[in-house]
Design a protein that fits this description.
With about 70 residues, the chain is mainly α. It has a domain of about 45 residues. It contains three helices and no strands. Helix 1 crosses helix 2. The longest helix has 14 residues. It is flat, with a radius of gyration of 21 Å. The chain starts with a helix and ends in a 26-residue tail after the last helix.
Amino acid sequence: MFMDELTPVIRELAGHPIAFLGGFVSGLLRLNLADDPVKSWLEQQSGVTLTQSTPSNQTNGNGNGPQQISID
């Protein structure tokens, strides 16, 4: 039962050991891949510009906090 859960992890480790260990270490160190030192290094290695997706704050035209509504 325990080995069934570890099988995909072991398969990825065997298939791509450097990428897996890099992701594992960055997760342990809690590195954000969108931060500048890591982001610029990744861009140099891959040649691809990474975009950072940030959630946009959508309001109803009034960003003054909570508003009162009436429900009939």
